[in-house]
Predict the structure.
Amino acid sequence: MNKIIATLIAGLFATAAYAQTTPVQTPAVVKAEHEANKDVAKAQQNEMKADVKADKKADKAVAKANKTHDTAAAHVEVEKAKANEKVAKADPEDKAKAEAKGDKAVAKAEEKAGKKAVKADAKAIKETVDATADKAIAANKTDAVKAKSAADIKAAAAKN
């Protein structure tokens, strides 16, 4: 029984190997494949350029937001220093009034800094989302070129 099974398996492999012949490529198919490879390479290059441009745009927005955060924080620190200086220079009976006035100025500076930070973050997030969308569109274009190229190759092969 083992010899019969071994013979059947060997026959199966032999027929499978014999059945796998490579199709003869005609000049039209070769030309279509060449054009397809060229188109796909160009699409991939354009996709990489779009990705780099989108990343640069997003990075610039994030850097600008970080700069805005730093500037706002520095402004708050300056207001705190001014308030502390005024309290130190104030007469003993006016210290409480000077502290209250200083706290009010610091609170106003913190509010303004917070508002600027939120706006900068929102803009950075928007730019990042736009960059991601640009990347997705570029990838979609590349996929479309690949699909069109594959269809062109199939059409060229079908003609022959």
Q: What stands out?
A: The chain has a mean pLDDT of 87. DSSP finds three helices and no strands in the chain.
